[in-house]
Amino acid sequence: MNFFLQPLTILTFFPLLGILVILFMNSEMKNAIRWTALVTSLITFGISIWVLTMFTASNPDLQLVAKYNWITVAGWNIQYHMGVDGLSILLVLLTAFLTPISILSTWTAVEERVKDFMVFFLLLEVGMTGVFLAQDLFLFYIFWEFTLVPMYFLIGIWGGPRRIYAAIKFFLYTMAGSILMLLAILWLGIQGQTFSVPDLILKGGIPANIQWWLFLAFTAAFAIKVPMWPLHSWLPDAHVEAPTAGSVILAGVLLKMGTYGFLRFNIPLFPEATVAAAPWIALFAAIGIIYGAAVSYAQADVKKLVAYSSVSHLGFVMLGMFALNEQGIAGGILQMINHGLSTGALFLLVGMIYEQTHTREIKVYGGLWKITPIFGSIMLIVALSSMGLPGLNGFVGEFTILLGAWGAGMDGGPYGSVWYAGISAAGVIMAAVYILYMFQKMFLGPEGSIVEEVKKHGHALRDLNWREIATIVPILIFIFWIGLYPAPFFDLMAPAVTKLVAALPIP
Question: Strand ranges (DSSP E) for 401-476?
C-alpha cells in the first residue's frame, strides 16, 4: 500500500492539512480559523473511527502496520514503523475524541493570537497520536519529544500569570527524564541491531542486570510524565497556568503517554526487571494515591485541586498495571480512559465558570446550584464519576484495578501481599472527601461573595450556553456508557493484555 494511503499515517498526519490551510488565513479571521481547526479535528476523529472499524479485537498482535525503511546509514536501518493493538487503540481514540472538544472550549476563552494557538494545538495532536502508534524506538522518541514544543508554547503564551515559570518547569522536567531514555534507546539499538520494538521483544535475551539499568532509564522518562510521586511537582504548576484546553489535553492525553510507556516498553522489553520492580512501583503508586488525595483536600484553588487529584488517580493506573495480571492491566488501561474523560470534563467545567468570574478560589463561591442548575447538575455527575460512584466510569476502572492488585497478592505474585491494595482502597474514600468538599463549598449553601462581585460589573452569573453544553455532553455519554456497559472496551484490549501477561516470568 502507498505510504500516504496507510490508515495510521492518514490518522497521524491529517491535522497537518488543517494547519496548512490555517497558515494561509489572515490572523484577523478568528472565527474562520476556529472553524477550520474544529473541522480538521472532527475529521481526524472520523478517521480514528474508520481505523476502529478495521481493527480486529480478537487479534492480539499489531494491526494496520505501516513499515518502511527510513534512515539507512552504515548498516543501520531506522524504520517508519507504525501499528496499533489492544494496548493502544483506546488511547488513540481518546486523543482524537478530546481534541475537538478542547478546541470547541476555546471559542471565547482564547481571543489573542488564535491562529498561532490552533496551529500549536493541531501540531500537539500529531505528536500525541504518533506516540501511541510508533513501533520504532527512534520514531517514538521523535514523537515523544515533539509533543513538548507545542505544549510549551500553549502554556507559555496563553497561560496564567506564572505561565513562563510553569512552561519552563514542564519542559525541563520532561526533558531531563527523556535524556536517560534516549541513552537506553541507543544501547538497545546498538546491541539489538534494530530499533523495532516488536523485533527487540522477539530477540529478548537481555541479561537481568542490564535490564535493571534499562528499566530505570525508561522509568525516569515515564514516571515524570505520569507523574508518579515524588516526581509530580511540575504538574500542579503546569495545570494551573495552562489555558483550559491545554489542561484538558495535558490531563486527558499527555499524562497517559507516561503510563502507556510502561505498558508498551518497560513491561515487554524488560520482563525480569519488571517483575522484580513491581513491588517498588506498587509502593510508590500507593503513596501517590494517598498523597494526591490528601493534598487535593488542602487546596484553595479548584483547578489545583483537580490537578493534584490526577496524582492520585494515575497512582491507581500504575498500581493496576504492575499487578502484572490481566485484571490489573485491563483495569489500568480503562482507568487511563476514565481519567481522561472525568478529569478532562472537570477542567472544562472549571474553565467555563472561570470565564465568567476570573477566579478559581473555592471560598468565594457558594450557592451556584440555584443560580446555574445545568452547570451544577453536570458538575455533580462528573464529580461523582471522578470519585468512583457505581454506575459511572470511574468505579469500573478502580474496582478492576483493586481486584487485580488484591489477586496479585493473594496468588503470591509480584506484590507478595495485599497491603498495597488495601492502602489504595482508602484513596477511594479520600477522593469522596475532597470532591464532595469542593462541591459543597461551590454549589450548596449561601451565595458566595463572587456572585455580588460579578453583579458589580453589570452582569449576573449565567448558566451554560448551548456551545458549552455541546462541549461537555459527549464526555457525559461515555461516562455513563463505560459505567453501565464496559464490556466493549474490555473486549478491545483483552487479547493483547493476555499476550502481554503470558510473556512475563511470574513464578
Answer: none
Q: Residues 6 or more apart from 211 whose CB is under 8 A from it? A: 270, 271, 272, 273
Q: Is the pLDDT of residue 416 over 50?
A: no
Residue 346 phi, psi (nearest 5): -60, -45
Cell numbers for 217, please give them. 532509564
Which set of grid coordinates corresponds to residue 447? 451565595
Domain residue ranges of the chain, discontinuous segments joined by +: 278-507
Spell 231-255 as b/e; 16+ CB within 10 A means b: bbebbbbbbbbbbbbbbbbbbbbbb
| CA neighbor of 144 nearest in space, from 224, 68, 41 | 224
Structure-block grid coordinates of residue 99? 481534541
Would you say 107 and 243 are in contact if contact means Cβ atoms under 8 Å apart?
no
Q: List, in sequence order, every residue forming a beta bridge with 76; answer none if it has no partner.
A: 73
For the whole model, what pTM was predicted?
A: 0.91
Q: How far is CA 299 from CA 313, 414, 435, 438, in A?
A: 17, 35, 11, 9
Helix (H, G, I), strand (E, B) or coil at 445: coil
Hey, is 72 helix, strand or coil?
Answer: strand
Query: Residue 78: in which H helix or E strand, if any?
Result: strand 76-84
Residue 1's contacts (CB-CB under 8 Å, 6 or more residues apart) are 66
The three grid cell numbers given for residue 393, joined into one nine-digit string: 466510569
The answer to whether the CB of 244 falls within 8 A of the CB of 107 is no
Beta-carbon contacts of residue 331 (< 8 Å; ≥ 6 apart): 320, 396, 397, 398, 399, 400, 401, 402, 403, 404
Q: Is 162 helix (H, G, I), strand (E, B) or coil?
A: coil
Q: Is the omega angle on the peptide bond into residue 230 within 30 degrees of 0, that is, cis? A: yes
Range with top average pLDDT, 26-30, 50-54, 106-110, 154-158: 50-54
C-alpha to C-alpha distance for 1 and 13, rounded to whole angstroms = 17
pLDDT above 80 (res 431) = yes
What confidence tier does 99 reach under pLDDT thresholds 50, 70, 90? Answer: very high
Instruction: Tell me which amino acid residue 80 is.
Output: Y
Closest C-alpha to 188, from 173, 179, 174, 199: 199
Transcribe 198-258 into DSSP letters.
HHHHHH----HHHHHHHHHHHHHHHHHHTTPTTS-THHHHHHHHS-HHHHHHIIIIIHHHH
Q: Are 491 and 397 in contact (CB under 8 A)?
A: no
Closest CA to 393 of 316, 465, 470: 316
